[in-house]
Each structure stands twice: as C-alpha cells, then as structure tokens.
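Q: Here's a chain of 348 amino acids. Please give me its 3D structure as tokens.
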Amino acid sequence: MKELKILAILALFTLVTYIGIEPFAHSQMSPLVANANFNYEQEDIDLAKVRIEEAKSVLKKAEDNLAKNTADENLKNAVESAKKDVEVRENDLTAYQELWAQADEIFALKGNPENGAEIFLMACASCHGLSSQGMESPFDAEMSSLSYGVVVPDLSLTGAVYDKKFLGALIVNPAQALKVSKKFNDENPLPMTQFFGFGEDLNQEVADIVAYLQSIAPQSVSDKEVFETACLRCHDIKYDALYSPTEKSALKGYMGSNPPDLSVMIRSRLADYLENFINDPQKKLDGTAMPRVGLTKERTEQVINYLEKVGDGKKDERIVIGIGMIIFFIVMAFFAYMWKEGVWRDLH
C-alpha cells in the first residue's frame, strides 16, 4: 500500500509539472500566437492591431510610473519612447492596410501572361533568371552575393510555390510584403526594388507578371524543390548535402548573422511551430531579420515534410520502439510487484 501512495504522489507532481509549469514556461519562452491561416492580408492586419495594443499597454505603464515620480528623467524618456513605438505600430497598420487594399485590386484583375512575359523581360530579367525558360540569371552566385548580400532567386517555380496575392504585394512593395521594412528603409534600401510600372495601369501590369509566372510554373513540385526555392538561398541543410549558394560573409552582413543549418530543426521546434514561423516569422519572433516568404499552405507543408524526411527519417521507427518500451516497463512493473508480494507476504 505504501508503494501505491508513493506512486500517487509522483504522479501528482508529474501532472503539476506537465499541465501547469511546463505550459507556463513555454508561454514565456515562446508566446502563444494565432495559428497560421494563410490569409496574409487578415494575418498582417490582425497582428498589427495586436502590436498596437501591446505598445499602448507599455505606454500606459510608463505613464503610470511617471505619475508617481514626475521629476524622473528616465521615466520621461520611457514615456516618449513608448509614444514613438505606438506611433510606429499605428503607421505599420496603415501601411499594411494600404498594401493589401492594392493587392486585392490586383488579385481581382485577369492577368495577361503574354504581356507579363514582356514586362518581365523589361523589369525583372536584369536581376532574375528563369532557367526553365532558358533564361539564366545575369549574375553568378559570387557576384550576386557581393552585390546584394544574398543570391538573387531564379523564379522558375515562383508561380507554383508562392501565394498569388502575396506575389502581387511583393512586386508592389517588397520590404512591406516581406516584413523587413524595419531593417530596410531609405537609408538602407532593400536590394529588391519596388515595381513602379511603365506608365500604364500599374495594377494590371503586376497582375500580368503574376499570370506569366504562374503560366510557366509546373503543376507538380517536389518537397525538396519547394525547400530549395523558398529556403536554400539562406539556409544550409547538410544532412542532405544542400548548402546555400550565398557567400557566408555576405549573408551575415545582409541578415546580421548567419542563418542556422536546418538539418535537425524539425526535432527542436516540431511541425506546428515551424508552420507558424514559416508563415510569419515576426509573429513568433518580433524583430527577427528573417523575411516572410509567402508560401501557400500546401507548399509550407511540403517544406515541413522535407525537413522531417531529412532530419527525422526514423520518426516512425522511434515511435514504435517507444511504445514497445512503455509496454515492456508496464509488464515488468506488474511482475516485479507480484514477485514482491510473493516474497514479503508472510512478513506483513
């Protein structure tokens, strides 16, 4: 009976740890966010509103502290800083509302692939290649790294991999769509410039470019191809002998630090976290230098599938062994208890 009481106490402490303490610790290290729904417009506007409320909460606390000690210069500075942050967050909301309003207009238009091909040659081919169309990038990896800090992507699979409305927003305002406008501004411009059109209907021209990229994209894309298109410019995955073509020192200067090798990322972060992070890195890690890439839900799942294949290929086998070990210990615990009862029965 004593053993059962000890077991009950251990079970109680275990439950308190895993139901109470562990979720609280995770909530502090990785705050809960809304799950990705891949409606980038709604997500951007909703997150911007959340950030405004957070900034206003900080401002309120700073003002309350200042009210208690009106002569403290540090508290005055904290209030001014909080006010500026609220203003920045409100400007972000306005910028996203304007960007996605224009993207909605583009999305509603019927694109002309033939016209888009001509516009692509005039506006995009000076930097980007389309290897599937026999159009190689004008820069090799070394020159591209030195010139831009990161290898300029080949756009052959773009129309199959990225969200259509996101592509429109990306062409119109790259820094805002990628969510790197804090890092890249007038003093430090993003290497990819905005498309201002050729004097006709700008929105129609963007719709034509997107239609062209979709028209040349394959219907089927492998998990590995999606990863290479969306992630490989910055991230290595040495378990599959894939290495970023971007020169490391240039990439560090561009990003602020070298992005991690993703070989075992699936083991440390798991699929749910990665889906949210790929969908919008700022949602999970506000201020991160990693850009939002704009994948569709299907393509995001393919990236995660690829990471699982490469970094956790024996997951199913491990699960089976784990279940077997649990069953083994339960059976052994039962026999050990029965043995103990048989040996000590006469002494109780």
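Q: Can you summarize the key feature?
A: The first helix runs from residue 2 to 29.
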